[in-house]
Structures are given as C-alpha cells and as structure tokens.
TrEMBL record:
Keywords: Sugar transport, Transport
Full protein name: Multiple sugar transport system substrate-binding protein
Record-linked SUPFAM superfamilies: Periplasmic binding protein-like II
PANTHER family cross-referenced by the UniProt entry: ABC TRANSPORTER SUBSTRATE-BINDING PROTEIN YESO-RELATED, ARABINOSE-BINDING PROTEIN-RELATED
Signal peptide: none
InterPro entries, alphabetized: Bact_solute-bd_prot1, SBP
Gene3D superfamilies, alphabetized: Periplasmic binding protein-like II
A Pfam family the protein falls into: SBP_bac_1
Highest taxon of the lineage: Bacteria
Length: 443
C-alpha cells in the first residue's frame, strides 16, 4: 500500500526524516496538496472551481523531490490547481498502471515510456493531443522534430517527451587510468570496441572484464541494425531476420571467447536493467551500456568517476529519443488543465531549471539554454555535454515501437541468456525468438 502524506502545507519541519521513512518503507509514495507552476500567460482550465489532478511516475526519491517542487511552482501560479501525486520504483509500475486502467481510474497525468506508448494509444487509455498541438495550446515548436515524432502514433500526437536521452557506453575513468588503457572513443566500430574490452581484461589480469555482454540489450541491437540501414521494427513486425540476429549473437560469442565480457552469472545480474546492478557500478567491468540520463544516478552509486561516449557505430544511428513521456488519461475530467501542466513541465524555463537533467536533457531547446548555467552536478554536466556533442549528428527518428515491444525485449534477454549458457544453439534459439517475437507483435 502507498504511504499517504498530508498536504505539503501541513507537513512537519523535518524533510530529511520524511525522506528516510519513505526510503525505509520502500513503497509507492502518495502525497496530496498544493504543488505547482505554469507559464505566466497559461490558462489552466475552462472551469472556475478548484481542480485536483492525480499524477503518477516511476523513479527514485530525487526525482520525486524535484517533480513535487515543480508542481508546487505550478500551483503557486495557479492556486486553484492542486495535485495528488504517487511515485514508485520502475519494478511493478506498469502492473499497477494496468490495474488502474482496468478499473478506469488511471491518474490524470502519467509517465510512460516507448515500451508502452503505442499500446496505450491503441487501447485508447491516453488522450490524443493532436488538436492541442495544432492550435499551440500544447506548444511543441521548441522541441527537436525527431523528439516530437517519437511521441506520435499513427500520425497522432499521443505524448510529450519528458526528456531526451541517448544510449551510451558508461566507463570507469579511474580504473582505465590505473590500467593505462585509453578511454573508449566515439565512433568506434563494434569490432574495435570489443578489441578495446579485451585490452582491459588483459591489463587487469582478468580481475575486471572490459565490457558488459550486450547480446540481450535491445538498445545496442537497434543501433547496430540502424548502422547497417536496418531497423528493429518495420511497422508491426520485426525489421530484421534470422541471419541478421545470428550475426549479432555471434559478435558477442566472439567477445566471450576473448574474455572481453564477464561470466554468464554476472551478466544476468546486469540484464535486469537495475542501475545498482550495472557492472560498471559494482566494479566488475570497466564499461556498461546505459541511457545518458542515467549517468548521474550511476555516478551516485560509485565513488569512481564515470565517463560516457556513444555506443559503437555511427552517431547517425541514434536519434532524438524520449527518455520517457508525459501522457494524459483519456478519461480525465480536466483535459485543458492537464494539457497546461504538460506544457509547463516541457517548456517553462523555471521548471526546467528545477528539474535539471533528472529525466534527461530538457525536451525544449530553449529551456536547455535557459537552464544551462544552473546545472552544477558534475555528472549531469557530463551527461548534458554528451547530448549536446552529438545533437547535430543524429539520424531520423523511427516510429515508436509497436504494441508488444515490452514482450520482445523480454524475449531477447531470454534468448541471449540461453545462447550464453549453451542451453540452445544459436540458430535454433534465434529462429524461436523470431517466431515468438512476431507472434507477440501480432497479438
């Protein structure tokens, strides 16, 4: 059950203790009260009475603190709008949201990612924002075109990026200095990257592997496919065949034979995607794959200085990718107010300054410039510098993944693991994956 907090104006004077209790409970946090903040000239709703919006997102205590602060700012400017907020960790988030959807009581404003965007749009769970974008009630003119496109399903704007991120290699700078191995560089081919990882393993006498095993990482596979003119998806089907996927798995088999990656048991820990289990954080590899917006969180989990470069291959394989989206519940009683809140979270300079890069680079280019000097956290600065360095080299954005993407991701991890521990031959496992993935996409 969630922990219920009273409105903010009745909270006690010890916020540190409240944060500690929240962390100890380890459950979704529910808070109600006047949160706040909108553009000076924004209209919140056509209604005259008070409006309470429910908001739900996943993340940690830091994201909660910053998001609640921004919502307070909105309410200060729009006193009749208050918020009932709930947040939790990523594990179980969509299960809870599915339960709410089944009961027709989805929060007014929710955070979703590309794994569920298309499915929620097609099931008519989230509000179509197209008309509001057309008349600029929801003003996306300051967002990169690719970032806007990535929130579009079948030609309709269904969500707005809460931040922009890119897939990257996170590496341990201090370890590489100690081993006297150069840092990985942007634009390395996949073969060069694996060769670099071999050097790390050799230099450490096998104490540390060079890189995580990326065979089950859909981000890496997607960019590898795009670097060859392919795609992860073509419409509602996989965008690649058996032979391409076999080539991908064989690339990682060669890496394992060369001891560029750690043992299978350690790799399976990292496959969960949990930041605290990232092998670069636990010290078991010199490098891992992660989203750029995760760099500050990963840095907080280790005392070693972390750096970041893009995944191997041409930068043009990447695109302006939403780290996550803000979407409105189709059944909200206050669509205009929810739209205005999304507008504020996305395009307001003060809001952008408060949020920093907690959800990635701010979606709005103007807000990025406005908030640039306010970012003091070194890891956030490095993440921002990485994003800005590749901004002019990004390729065109694909359509958001089709319904079934979450299942495909799970199948890819399972297939990679079965090959890694030799439960199945590469061709047999790959053929089975292709059949199961296409079935999941067709369901």
């Amino acid at each position: 059950m969630p922990v219920v907090r009273p409105p903010f104006d009745r909270l006690g004077a010890d916020p540190g203790r409240r944060r500690l209790l929240t962390a100890l409970v380890g459950a979704p946090l529910l808070a109600s009260g006047g949160l706040a903040g909108c553009s000076d000239d924004a209209a919140t709703s056509t209604q005259d009475g008070p409006v309470e919006l429910s908001v739900f997102w996943w993340g940690g205590p830091r994201r909660a603190t910053l998001t609640e602060k921004v919502l307070r700012l909105y309410s200060e400017r729009n006193p009749r709008v208050t918020f009932r907020v709930t947040w939790q960790g990523a594990d179980g988030y969509y299960e809870r949201l599915a339960t709410q959807a089944a009961g027709g009581n989805v929060p007014d404003l929710v955070q979703i990612d590309d794994a569920m965007l298309t499915e929620y749009a097609q099931r008519q769970i989230i509000l179509d924002l197209t008309d509001r974008v057309a008349d600029h009630r929801l003003d996306l003119r300051g967002l990169p075109e690719g970032l806007i496109r990535y929130g579009t399903v079948e030609g309709r704007t269904m969500a707005v990026a809460g931040g922009q991120t890119h897939a990257g290699v996170v590496f341990n700078r201090e370890l590489l200095r100690e081993l006297q191995v150069p840092e990985p560089r942007a634009g390395m081919s996949w073969a060069e990257y694996i060769s670099w990882a071999e050097q790390v393993t050799e230099a450490s006498d096998g104490q540390v592997a060079g890189t995580m095993d990326g065979s089950g990482d859909y981000r890496a596979l997607w960019l590898w496919l795009r670097s060859q003119g392919g795609e992860l998806y073509r419409g509602k089907q996989l965008g690649f065949g058996v032979e391409q996927l076999i080539a991908w798995f064989e690339l990682w088999q060669r890496a394992r034979r060369a001891r560029a990656t750690p043992g299978a048991a350690l790799v399976e820990q990292a496959d969960s995607g949990e930041p605290s289990r990232q092998l670069v954080v636990t010290g078991l590899t010199a490098a891992s794959f992660a989203w750029s917006h995760q760099l500050p969180e990963l840095q907080r989990l280790t005392g070693a200085e972390l750096g970041m470069v893009g995944l191997p291959g041409p930068t043009g394989a990447q695109w302006a990718r939403a780290s996550m989206f803000w979407a409105a519940f189709r059944g909200t009683r206050h669509p205009d107010t929810v739209t205005d809140v999304i507008n504020f979270l996305t395009t307001n300079g003060e809001a952008g300054t408060v949020l920093g890069h907690e959800r990635g680079l701010n979606a709005s280019l103007a807000v990025r410039r406005y908030a640039e000097g306010s970012i003091t956290d070194p890891a956030q600065q490095r993440a921002a510098a990485f994003g800005e360095a590749i901004a002019d080299q990004l390729g065109p954005a694909p359509a958001p993944p089709p319904k079934g993407h979450a299942k495909v991701r799970t199948l890819l991890v399972a297939t990679a693991e079965s090959i890694r521990v030799k439960r199945a031959g590469t061709r047999a496992a790959t053929s089975r994956f292709i059949a199961q993935a296409n079935a999941a996409l067709a369901a």
